[in-house]
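Entry 14. Ran structure prediction on the chain below.
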Amino acid sequence: MIDELFIRDLGVIAEATLPLGPGFTAVTGETGAGKTMVVTALGLLLGDRADAGTVRQGQPQSFVQGRWVIDPASAVADRVRDAGGDLDGPELILGRSVSSEGRSRAMVGGRGAPASVLGDLRNDLVVVHGQSDQVRLRSAAAQRDALDRFAGPELAAVLGDYQHAFHRWQANQVDLDRLVTERDLRAREADELRSALTEIETVAPQPGEDAELGERAERLGNLEELRLAGEQARQLISAEDNPDDVPDVVALLEAARRALDRVAAHDVALPPLVAAISNAGFVVADIAAELSSYLAGLDADGARELEIVQERRAELGILARKYPGGLEEAIGFLDTGSARLLELDSDSDRIEQLSAEADADQELVTDLAAALTALRLAAAVQLGVRVTAELGALAMPDAVLLVQIEAGPEFTVTGIDLVRLLLQPHAGAEPRALARGASGGELSRVMLAIEVVINATDPVPTFVFDEIDAGVGGAAAIEIGRRLARLAETAQVIVVTHLAQVAAFAGNHLSVVKDSDGSVTASSVRQLRGDDRAAEMARLLSGLPDSKSGLEHARELLDLAQPNSRPPKK
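Output, structure tokens:
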């Protein structure tokens, strides 16, 4: 339950602390005093979207903080710890700030956390009902959700299984439809791939082959020049087969060595030079031998080889121009294209497999949908009976709620059932769909009756009602107050109301008070007791807090509600 709520600079509320605690708390106040900001503050603490427009004019940010009392072993406590927060014994602190620029920060158990964490905790902490929820109750989805909540864990388990099978069925069906629709297109793609892969495999390019062939073509195209230059260089280095005894490098080095060797004994500096010249001679002789091998290796039939190389280069060039990345992309395409072709060639097998899976899932979805329908039909009878009994306690003694279930045109994520709530206002009248025939006051009471009944099977620790008494007055309002007090015996109930008949049944009465200071209006919250509470009740009844008749009527209401006004023990 929420033990305390703190609000600062939210809407017209400058600063306020709301002591809540167990039982039934009523929040009242003048129009424009900021009663709805209490619900807005709770919404922020439960993950609602931040709105910079709610920050009090002239202030940099608004801030709200709630102190909850929870079970340290509950799922809520586990989620808080997962988010990095801590509990102080059974106490959980949630906080939210909103800047005037619209930035928002959330605090969970003393640690910063995404606002989504607050949303995760919402359903286990509070159920909030505002006037928009009365409108939502007119929708088929909200009516089905109410029935499913009442049906409890058994239906929830079957619904979970159904949705798992439904999503799998839909996904397989989408893939199957795509394969069947694109079968011809994919067949053409497979033919094109097969042709492209055959061409690459026929050419059989090798990594780096085009560069290697380019080097060979350059060599073969200049074969005669290479031979003449090589022969000339070899003759200049070593002309042993030259009949004209032309001096060569080998002979000149040998002559130099002999000249120095004759006088080397006379100077210690010369033997190293003699040795160096000898080594140079060996090196030059090796070069001459390599040139001879090079000349011997020059192809005598270079023209024929050049033709073969150019033909291969042309073949590779044709293939390379078909791919933006050239031959390297073509070589890589052998792997990727083969994998894609294997996928396309297996379409028939895939279609057959998907068809079998989709058929099996459709059968499972059909069976689970039938189980959902059976559970809903059983729950519908009980929900109608129990809500009808509650309506009798809410000044609608002749009203009957009927829960109608019909088969829809197709399976959806929630089954095949169309759920409609029908209200028969009195005996003999034609049942009317809530979506069309119920008034605002009737919707308020139906919504309260449904929550009371559902709470017996799906309990929620805290209910927040924002003007659930809209469109209601007189005896009906008294019955709503009395029923809220009964609900507060098993759950915490917080009600923002403008009716004294409802507020009278609260064990804790808070008033949002508006003070004016020039053009700025600020509001704060007071806990009312004794004469102050009677005066607020009189204001709600007559608009005059000091009216004698209003005060008498207020005290009469409080006396009427007194047995229900004491909150349960903690």
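The mean pLDDT is 85. Will compare against last week's run tomorrow.
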